[in-house]
Amino acid sequence: MKEAKSHWEDVYDKKSYEDASWYQEKPETSLQFIKDLHLPECSKIIDVGGGDSNLVDYLIKKGYRDISVLDISEKAIKKAKKRLKGDAEKVNWIVADATEFEVIQVYHLWHDRAAFHFLTEEYQIENYLRTLENSVASGGYVILATFSKNGPEKCSGRKINQYSKEDLQELLQHKFELLRCENIDHKTPSGVIQNFTFCCFRKK
Q1: Tens digit of pLDDT for each residue in 73-89?
Q2: Residue 170: which residues within 8 A CB-CB, separation 6 or more?
Q3: Which of 4, 25, 50, 70 is the most exposed place for a label (fewest CB within 10 A)?
Q4: How far, in whole angstroms, is CA 107 from its chain's centroid?
Q5: Bridge partners of 197?
Q6: Averaged in consecutive runs of 10 residues, what is the pLDDT profile of the chain (204 residues)?
Q7: pTM of the full structure
Q8: What is the dihedral of CA 95, 100, 103, 109, to 10 degrees?
């Protein structure tokens, strides 16, 4: 996956988070999904493909004490650390490819907004799903958001896979039960509307 890492290092080198199409000042949908789960503050949470997203800022403010952020780009992680200043020490930062991530603990919540849909090869998807299954505690949750069938076919110059509620449910049905799924419009900084499939699952 050297090519993918090189691509994302280049993206984060040239583009600030505020200029990225996935930018959210406040990730309202993710935060609402998480709030509705009523997770204890000691819950282990991982944001997969979190980059320099602002989600971690809000999770810290809400009192969560065991947060991990995983991203393939070291530059994205460095930007997030710089923004958080002293609070960066409260986070477990992981520079890794989500398809090659070696699980060393289990999580009560796996959150992924817009990383999974970049995996277009069958082996990548299989590896990701295997890691996901091994990473989430029994009774734990997965919040997975991808471009929908009405969303873009490309992002950041790369092809993506579009997913419907039924597609995601089929992929995860053996180990997870679907709790809710919504189609959410995201407005990019340039004013383009991108439609997401936003789902929450619980591990059986």
Answers
A1: 999 999 999 999 999 99
A2: none
A3: 25
A4: 14
A5: 146, 183
A6: 70 64 85 98 97 94 97 92 96 94 93 95 95 97 97 87 98 97 92 95 97
A7: 0.92
A8: 70
Burial 66-90 (b: 16+ CB within 10 A, else e): bbbbbbbbebbbebbbeebeeebee
Query: Smallest Cα–Cα separation from 70: which of 104, 96, 52, 89?
Result: 96
DSSP letter string, the chain: -HHHHHHHHHHHHH--GGGSTT--SS-HHHHHHHHHHT--TT-EEEEET-TT-THHHHHHHTT--EEEEEES-HHHHHHHHHHHGGGGGGEEEEE--TTTPPP-S-EEEEEEESSGGG--SHHHHHHHHHHHHHHEEEEEEEEEEEE-TTS-SEETTEE-----HHHHHHHHTTTEEEEEEEEEEEE-TTS-EEEEEEEEEEE-
Could you name the CATH architecture of 2-203? 3-Layer(aba) Sandwich (3.40)
d(CA 183, CA 149): 10
Locus of tokens 């070291």: 74
Backbone angles phi and psi of 63, in degrees to 5:
95, 5
